[in-house]
């Protein structure tokens, strides 16, 4: 590979702009058995909370037309177990280590951020799309001024570069991104899953115990692309674009729409090494079209 795909995000160097999305790659060990994960630009860990969480009961994954729905419920081993078992392994790889931090309350986020302050990593991806249990189940990330409180708090204590992961279910995602910039975030990533529903006709009941679940996959790509375009052209901080990226063509579209880095998620379930196809396709596209750097096509639309 040439240097055409080299990318800088918030001052951090990526060998290419392809990152595995949180919740779809674990901590990288399993996928490393299918391909060399050091060929990736970066890896975003499964969402971590301060303490272990068992996740949701019942069905967690449900296939849909051109996508999947999930209601995993932030199952994770907790930050301490991650630091003990996986952090050094990831840090030993030649890729950008992005750690996704979630929480069910302000206290959860603060204590999690404080623990992550003590370890080496490259970026914290702050997931504000988690249910805020103490606020009656409302997501932190749907209302700009509610989200402002947590972004301000975490930015004030987080010693790492901070990227805020935005929910497409927000009332105004452009306003939300602008707030993140105002509060000092180093970047934003979007979009998370879209809120959807599935019904089991035999049981005459919702498929998921929580009734609603997150929709991802190719079905959401045009909407996610639109949101990335809107946000990238409204803020000056860099954007990680994700949502239904399955091919190198999809990835190039997100870069042209203004994304600095892209994340691949659901497509990994279709083909574990699909990110390698995307990297190779992007490289070939740039070469065939006479571009020396991917920077030349970023945000051109």
Fold topology:
Elements: E1 7-9, E2 12-14, E3 18-20, E4 42-44, E5 61-64, E6 67-70, H1 79-91, E7 96-101, H2 106-116, E8 123-127, H3 144-157, E9 161-165, H4 173-182, E10 187-190, E11 194-197, E12 199-200, E13 205-206, E14 212-216, H5 221-232, E15 239-241, H6 248-256, E16 261-264, H7 267-270, H8 274-288
Helix pairs in contact: 2-3, 3-4, 6-8
Structure description:
An eight-stranded parallel barrel has the order 3-4-7-8-9-10-15-16, surrounded by five helices. The two termini are 26 Å apart. The protein is α/β, with parallel strands linked by helices. It is 29% helix and 20% strand. The protein has helices spanning 79-91, 106-116, 144-157, 173-182, 221-232, 248-256, 267-270, 274-288, and strands at residues 7-9, 12-14, 18-20, 42-44, 61-64, 67-70, 96-101, 123-127, 161-165, 187-190, 194-197, 199-200, 205-206, 212-216, 239-241, 261-264. The radius of gyration is 18 Å and the shape is globular.
Short recap of the structure:
The protein has helices at 79-91, 106-116, 144-157, 173-182, 221-232, 248-256, 267-270, 274-288; strands at residues 7-9, 12-14, 18-20, 42-44, 61-64, 67-70, 96-101, 123-127, 161-165, 187-190, 194-197, 199-200, 205-206, 212-216, 239-241, 261-264. With 301 residues, the chain is an alpha/beta fold.
